[in-house]
Design a protein that fits this description.
With 139 residues, the protein is mostly helical. Helix content is 99%, strand content 0%.
């Protein structure tokens, strides 16, 4: 009985040892799984952080591109405005020159008309003088 009790006691100690070893193994597996889960979570956080940084950089680049496009649009609009104004200036200058030309032509025509009128008057006066002389000579 004593031997059976010792064997029983020994079996109980062995059983307790196995239970402790199994518990330690399970704790090790749980610790390993927790560590693995934590590393995966940290890796996901890092990937998310990198993704957010890339998105921020892309957004910053888009804003810079939009700024550059807006600036180019402003420059293009200013160039178009200046070209339009230059076209208007040239058109006004052409109109002014055409007006001056018309005025010169009108002045030349007026001078020619005055000269023609004066020549006609002179011619008529000469003709009247000749007719008077003829008439006086006949009388």
């Amino acid at each position: 009985m004593k031997q059976a009790a010792e064997a029983n006691q020994s079996a109980m100690v062995q059983k307790d040892k196995r239970i402790v070893e199994e518990k330690e193994m399970e704790d090790g597996i749980v610790a390993y799984q927790k560590d693995k889960d934590r590393k995966e979570y940290e890796a996901q956080l890092e990937l998310q952080r990198i993704k957010e940084e890339k998105e921020k950089e892309i957004q910053r680049l888009r804003e810079l591109q939009e700024k550059a496009a807006d600036r180019q649009a402003e420059i293009d609009a200013l160039r178009a405005k200046r070209a339009f104004e230059e076209g208007e200036r040239q058109a006004r200058e052409r109109e002014r020159l055409e007006h001056q030309k018309r005025l010169r032509i009108m002045a030349d025509l007026e001078n020619a008309r005055q000269k023609q009128f004066a020549e006609k008057q002179s011619s008529l006066a000469e003709q009247a003088r000749i007719e008077r002389e003829d008439y006086m000579n006949q009388i």
